[in-house]
Amino acid sequence: xxxxxxxxxxxxxxxxxxxxxxxxxxxxxxxxxxxxxxxxxxxxxxxxxxxxxxxxxxxxxxxxxxxxxxxxxxxxxxxxxxxxxxxxxxxxxxxxxxxxxxxxxxxxxxxxxxxxxxxxxxxxxxxxxxxxxxxxxxxxxxxxxxxxxxxxxxxxxxxxxxxxxxxxxxxxxxxxxxxxxxxxxxxxxxxxxxxxxxxxxxxxxxxxxxxxxxxxxxxxxxxxxxxxxxxxxxxxxxxx
Length: 240
Ligand SMILES: Nc1ncnc2c1ncn2[C@@H]1O[C@H](COP(=O)(O)OP(=O)(O)O)[C@@H](O)[C@H]1O
Ligand SMILES: [Mg+2]
What we know:
This protein is α/β, with parallel strands linked by helices. The chain folds into 2 domains: 4-42, no CATH class; 45-236, P-loop containing nucleotide triphosphate hydrolases (Rossmann fold, 3-Layer(aba) Sandwich), CATH 3.40.50.300. It has helices spanning 4-7, 42-50, 77-88, 90-95, 110-123, 133-145, 151-160, 176-192, 204-211, 213-222, 233-236, and strands spanning 27-30, 35-38, 99-104, 128-132, 163-167, 195-200, 223-228. Helix 8 (176-192) links the parallel strand 5 (163-167) and strand 6. The chain starts with a helix and ends with a helix. The model is unreliable at 1-13 (pLDDT under 50). Magnesium ion binds at residues 110-111, 167-168, 199.
């Protein structure tokens, strides 16, 4: 497993090879023939390099998340068991384009569990982009209307990253044009079988009103829905 310091620097390439095959360069050198070939870790390196300027680092508040520590230990066992099953086969799930959809009211641990999954994906050396939906939409809008930036590049990278993690889906209303870009990203990932994780406190119908039926039905097909119930833990613990 990667050392802890590498886990959250999603966008920084680990300097060691996760397979112990190369010197961290992504190439295996053959002294006898004076040649080099791609290392098994090179595809991951390229993908992580592409994700470099995406928003990929776990927020400080969620960096310590772990199955054996509160608040995760206080979340309903069937939900944490499903998350554990998912992360135990993280590579297989990401390669198969399978994702998770955390649904529940505020303060029930949705963001915590989603961060736990992203953390495990990063530890497995996969590229992850973590966004709140409002931030994602702002970046899309900005990249399109700011002539200096390359919107095609941003959309391509959002479509190509191993795991796209979108927090708080449906949190804000936005323009039809931006929603069309969101659909394009989700649809590209759907067609390429690339994983998505979302958290939302909206019911399916409300979500469809906010971000379009087409986008929701794609996400529904790509994700296992995990409902979280319970009181708002933030309110039970003032100051949290
Ligand atoms: N089931 C729970 N039991 C105790 N504390 C929890 C639980 N779920 C979340 N928390 C705590 O409540 C706060 C909000 O958690 P978060 O995952 O951000 O909730 P959500 O995304 O569902 O609004 C965090 O401080 C977290 O540690
Ligand atoms: Mg949340």
